[in-house]
Task: inverse folding
């Protein structure tokens, strides 16, 4: 579907300058929306919001549906009476200062016990409309919530061991064993439901605030899910597993210029034949949930819907994989029928075949252009602004270095010369040259990582794909997204005809704001 000509900012909520060591849905998020509105930005793009798994990556969640509890604002739980103010560390009420990178182990150790204490108090004492909303949430979302909290509770009981290492009756979901643990863990499971309810209410309240300020949310859906997830444990019949519940084949991409052995991602692959026989019910539920929580969706690794790289699970590299046909139009026609449209755009970077472009064009799903990729040889020019009509353009993404970092140390001499020739002189920095070119392009959406707006170097990079540690930690500081920057962005949005479009305001005003 076509998108209105709009400008926006890419920033994951963990990067907000919230109190407590990690960004969340509290006051800093609302302040950021105010800054977006002042900057005349109509889009806030986030990364997947799921509960974190391996490496703290938002793309390695333990559920395709559950929210990350670290994003719950303790301050707003205090306002709603879930937890006493005196329980929070003094740092939650100290004057705002420099934000430090997210130290996940430390944050988990401090914040999760406080969240469980809040959930315990809510379950014991909530009454009136809050109790009714909680019960309605549990009933309406039982189709994913019940299995998720059971998985989450068992995972905690098993000290975060992967589900295939649990006792055999639990790994194989023997009904009597599941019923036993549901009774044994009943109180714990209810608290975990309460935390998902808190996440849901705070996110929907923030979304409502966004809609009141004409800001739409772009979400992100990864094509694959983690093996150690509630989804695979619950729906193993939908995945290519053997009799021992281990993956038969796994995901990745083949060898290329950047890697002689390819990339072995390790996600289990789908049984698309079984999914088709079931009317793609799981995918319909997943994308309906995504579009209920966000306005537009970025589909990660779109190529995999046309063909995916199938690697024998026993192989340590991706060399011996093969291309296998994906569901193609069949899945998306079912999604269009179920959702009433396809509010998606496709991550179609890398080596993309004509068949993938044809699939995307048939479905009228825009692709993306990343400017940093456009200054190499002539074949890379498709990522430049003059080729961006009908696309979503970025200066860089969460997987790129910042534009300043790329230009100073990541780009080749040839790429720097090409960038200077293409963009011309820019007295206020290479990042503003990139931003102006993206905004001036014919792309439908122009999305800029906040790091590029701030003109930051490689120290602010969000993720290095080949690096297993140190990712997803960057945060900006209070006041860093200044009035001068918002005014500059607002002027550019006006000149490039990218002013925000009105957003229907979410009807339910009774969220836990």
Result:
């Amino acid at each position: 579907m076509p998108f209105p000509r709009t400008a926006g900012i890419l920033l994951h909520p963990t990067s907000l300058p919230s109190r407590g060591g990690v960004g969340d849905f509290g006051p800093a998020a609302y302040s950021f929306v105010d800054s977006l509105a002042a900057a005349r930005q109509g889009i806030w793009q986030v990364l997947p919001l799921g509960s974190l798994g391996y490496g703290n990556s938002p793309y390695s969640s333990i559920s395709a549906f559950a929210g990350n509890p670290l994003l719950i604002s303790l301050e707003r739980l205090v306002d709603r009476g879930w937890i006493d103010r005196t329980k929070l560390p003094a740092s939650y009420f100290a004057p705002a200062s420099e934000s430090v990178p997210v130290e996940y182990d430390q944050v988990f150790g401090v914040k999760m016990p406080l969240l469980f204490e809040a959930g315990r108090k809510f379950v014991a004492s909530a009454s009136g409309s809050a109790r009714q909303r909680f019960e309605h949430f549990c009933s309406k979302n039982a189709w994913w919530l019940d299995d998720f909290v059971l998985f989450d509770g068992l995972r905690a009981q098993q000290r975060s061991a992967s589900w295939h290492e649990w006792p055999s009756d639990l790994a194989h979901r023997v009904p009597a064993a599941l019923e036993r643990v549901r009774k044994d863990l009943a109180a714990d499971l209810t608290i975990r439901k309460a935390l998902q309810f808190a996440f849901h209410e705070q996110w929907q309240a923030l979304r409502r605030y966004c809609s009141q300020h004409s800001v739409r949310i772009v979400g992100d859906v990864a094509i694959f899910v983690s093996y150690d997830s509630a989804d695979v444990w619950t729906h193993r019949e939908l995945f290519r597993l053997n009799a021992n519940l281990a993956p038969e084949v796994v995901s990745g991409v083949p060898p290329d210029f950047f890697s002689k052995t390819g990339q072995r991602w390790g996600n289990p692959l789908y049984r698309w034949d079984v999914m088709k026989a079931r009317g793609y019910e799981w995918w319909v539920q997943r994308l309906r949930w995504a579009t209920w929580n966000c306005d537009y969706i970025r589909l990660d690794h779109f190529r995999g819907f046309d063909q995916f790289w199938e690697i024998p699970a026993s192989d340590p590299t991706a060399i011996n994989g093969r291309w296998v046909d994906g569901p193609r139009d069949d899945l998306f026609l079912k999604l269009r029928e179920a959702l009433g449209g396809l509010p998606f755009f496709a991550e179609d970077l890398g080596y993309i075949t004509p068949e993938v472009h044809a699939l995307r064009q048939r479905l009228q799903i825009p692709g993306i252009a990343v400017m940093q990729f456009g200054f190499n040889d002539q074949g890379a020019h498709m990522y430049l602004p003059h080729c961006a009509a009908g696309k979503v353009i970025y200066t860089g993404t969460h997987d790129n270095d910042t534009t300043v970092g790329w230009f100073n140390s990541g780009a080749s001499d040839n790429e720097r010369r090409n960038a200077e020739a293409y963009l011309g002189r820019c007295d206020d920095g290479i990042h503003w040259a990139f931003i102006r070119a993206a905004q001036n392009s014919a792309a439908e959406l122009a999305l800029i990582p906040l790091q590029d707006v701030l003109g930051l170097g490689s120290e602010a990079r969000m993720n290095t794909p080949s690096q297993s540690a140190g990712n997803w930690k960057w945060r900006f500081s209070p006041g860093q997204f200044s009035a001068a920057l918002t005014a500059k962005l607002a002027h550019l949005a006006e000149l490039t005809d990218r002013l925000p479009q009105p957003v229907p305001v979410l009807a339910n005003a009774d969220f836990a704001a």
In short: The chain has a mean pLDDT of 95. The longest strand covers residues 216-221.
